[in-house]
């Protein structure tokens, strides 16, 4: 059996960032990815400023720079933000993954694609039901349905269901829209994000509050009401896990959605994956490392979870909360407080 200091399961943003940091040391690292190609993932591709502060992401990876955003309420009441400087960037997950992987060239990190982890035991993992690889440390960066998380016996009770269409368009826009409406999405929302040659138009909600079938039906009536033509669009659906229950378990660490670190309120998970992947690596390199980025991330996640809980329990009052929120967003102080956790 081949032995490694660290085995990372999953080459999403969390696993790749973890590998990048470990690649700066002399640790022998194996990064296992079940897909044939690193990068592609169902995602709207929105990157907030905190990701840019964490990593020097080159400009060419941005498909669009967002300078205008509208938060649209149940009665088309709207809060709009228009700025000179961009405040959100849209990436293509395939090119972003490729760029992250290129950073591993010339390091001690071995990347293995088409490598599905089929079994995990104390001290080794089994790939494609055939080959065993030994580890000192194991990092579960294998996303919303993490096998490493299951091995640790941690359930996933808080998930979001998502549906999205990639609708071909001509001309690049730098404006995005978020739509909240209790009648369609309960505590969730719908989004319109502009990419280079298409729009991602999607929605998300917690299946404990609206069944997947109902959400799908309502999403289609909303698309119809908004006049979207989906006849040439690509349809996608994927869960988002936000059930955080810790990330350090002895010599096993979880990162990104495997740790349930995405936001239950917005579905944002790229920054959370990058930051936690980095922290997992730093803890492996130095067990005394103070994980400041995780602490800040968890602080804002808790705030978002509390607001989400309020929305979940508000019943028909949810519509009023959305209206009030949109109204208050025009207040500078409230706006700054409300957006600081996202940016
Ligand atoms: C519709 C939708 C829209 C979204 N939009 C945004 C957005 O605009 N902005 C944002 O920040 N976030 C968004 N997200 C969330 C974001 O995509 C995720 O939170 C993020 O990709 C999590 O990164 P990760 O590295 O933890 O996991 P992933 O990106 O899911 O990567 C996990 C990797 O592990 C691999 N893997 C899984 N199991 C195994 C196994 N057994 N063996 C080997 N490999 C395995 C997978 O193939 C995958 O490559 C969106 C999600 C969805 C579903």
Care to describe what's here?
This protein is α+β, with helices and mostly antiparallel strands. It has one domain: FAD/NAD(P)-binding domain. It is built from ten helices and 19 strands. The chain has helices spanning about 15-20, 50-55, 95-100, 145-150, 180-185, 210-225, 270-285, 290-315, 320-330, 330-340; strands at about 1-10, 30, 45, 60-65, 70, 80, 90, 110, 115-120, 125, 130-140, 160-170, 175-180, 190-195, 200-205, 235, 240, 250, 250-255. α1 runs parallel beside α3 and α1 (about 15-20) runs parallel beside α7 (about 270-285). It is globular, with a radius of gyration of 20 Å. The mean pLDDT is about 95. The structure holds flavin-adenine dinucleotide.
Break the fold down into its secondary structure elements and pairings.
Layout: E1 2-9, H1 13-22, E2 29-32, E3 46-47, H2 49-54, E4 62-66, E5 68-72, E6 78-82, E7 88-91, H3 93-102, E8 109-112, E9 117-121, E10 124-127, E11 131-140, H4 147-151, E12 159-168, E13 175-179, H5 182-185, E14 189-194, E15 198-205, H6 212-226, E16 234-237, E17 240-241, E18 248-249, E19 252-254, H7 270-285, H8 292-313, H9 318-328, H10 332-340
Parallel strand pairs: 1-2, 1-11, 2-8, 5-13, 11-19
Antiparallel strand pairs: 3-7, 4-7, 5-6, 9-10, 10-11, 12-15, 12-16, 12-17, 13-14, 14-15, 18-19
The structure holds flavin-adenine dinucleotide (FAD).
Flavin-adenine dinucleotide binds next to α1, β12 and α7.
């Amino acid at each position: 059996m081949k032995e490694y200091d660290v085995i990372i399961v999953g080459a999403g943003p969390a696993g790749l960032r973890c590998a990048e940091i470990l690649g700066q040391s002399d640790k022998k690292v194996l990064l296992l990815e079940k897909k044939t190609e690193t990068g592609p993932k169902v995602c709207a591709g929105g990157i907030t400023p905190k990701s840019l502060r964490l990593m020097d992401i080159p400009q060419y990876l941005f498909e669009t720079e967002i300078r205008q955003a509208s938060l649209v309420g149940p009665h088309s009441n709207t809060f709009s933000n228009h700025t000179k400087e961009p405040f959100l960037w849209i990436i293509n997950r395939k090119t972003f993954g490729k760029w992250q992987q290129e950073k591993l060239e010339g390091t001690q990190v071995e990347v293995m694609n088409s490598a599905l982890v089929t079994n995990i035991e104390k001290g080794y993992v089994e790939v494609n039901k055939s080959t065993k690889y030994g580890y000192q440390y194991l990092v579960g960066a294998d996303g919303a349905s993490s096998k490493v998380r299951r091995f640790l016996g941690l359930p996933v009770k808080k998930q979001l269901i998502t549906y999205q269409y990639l609708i071909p368009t001509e001309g690049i826009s730098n404006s995005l829209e978020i739509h909240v409406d209790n009648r369609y999405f309960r505590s969730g929302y719908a989004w319109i994000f502009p990419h280079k040659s298409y729009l991602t138009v999607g929605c998300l909600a917690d299946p404990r509050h609206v069944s997947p079938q109902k959400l799908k039906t309502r999403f289609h009536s909303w698309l119809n009401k908004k006049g979207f033509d989906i006849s040439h669009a690509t349809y996608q659906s994927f869960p988002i896990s936000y059930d955080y229950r810790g990330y350090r378990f002895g010599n096993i660490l979880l990162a990104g959605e495997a740790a349930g670190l995405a936001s239950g309120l917005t579905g944002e998970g790229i920054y959370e994956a990058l930051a936690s992947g980095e922290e997992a690596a730093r803890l492996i390199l130095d067990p005394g490392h103070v994980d400041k980025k995780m602490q800040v991330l968890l602080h804002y996640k808790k705030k978002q979870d509390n607001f989400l809980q309020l929305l979940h329990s508000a019943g028909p009052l949810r519509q009023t909360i959305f209206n009030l929120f949109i109204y208050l967003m025009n207040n500078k102080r409230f706006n700054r407080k409300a957006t600081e956790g996202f940016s």
